[in-house]
Amino acid sequence: MEAGGVIDKKVIISGDQVMLERHYLFIESFQKYFKECKTVSTPNILPRKIHMIREAFNGFPFFDYLQYPKEFDFHKSSWGFKYKSLLLGRKIRTEQPDFVLHIFGMSCPVLKSSPIPYAMTLDYTMALAEKNYPEWALFPTKNERDKWLEKEKEAYQKAKFLFPWSKAVAESLVEDYGIPREKMVVTGSSGNLKPAIGQEKTFGSHKILINASDFKRKGGDVAIAALKIVRERIPTASLLIVGVKEGPKETNVFYVGHVSRKEELIKLFLEADLVIGPALCDPYPGFIIEAMGFGTPCIVSNKDGMPEIVDDGVFIARIVAIKNLLFLLKVLQQVKAQVELTIVGPIEDEQYWEVCKQLIAQLPPQIRVQSVGAKNNDAIPGMLQAHHLFVLPTTGENFGHSIFEAFLAGRPVLISDQTPWRKLEHKQIGWDLPLSNPGAFVAVVETAAGWTQQDFDNYALASWSYAKEYIARSNVKEQYLQLFS
Question: HEC states along the chain?
Answer without folding.
Answer: CCHHHCEEEEEEEEECHHHHHHCHHHHHHHHCCEEEEEEEECCCCCHHHHHHHCCCCCCCCCHHHHCCCCCCCHHHCHHHHHHHHHHHHHHHHHHCCCEEEEECCCCCCCCCCCCCCEEEEECCCHHHHHHHCHHHCCCCCHHHHHHHHHHHHHHHHHCCEEEECCHHHHHHHHHHHCCCHHHECCCCCCCCCCCCCCCCCCCCCCEEEEECCCCCCCCHHHHHHHHHHHHHHCCCCEEEEECCCCCCCCCCEEEEECCCCHHHHHHHHHHCCEEEECCCCCCCCHHHHHHHHCCCCEEECCCCCHHHHCCCEEEECCECHHHCHHHHHHHHHCCCCCEEEEEECCECCHHHHHHHHHHHHCCCCCEEEEEEECCCHHHHHHHHHCCCCEEECCCCCCCCHHHHHHHHCCCCEEEECCCCCCCHHHHCCEEEECCCCHHHHHHHHHHHHCCCHHHHHHHHHHHHHHHHHHHHCCCCHHHHHHHCC
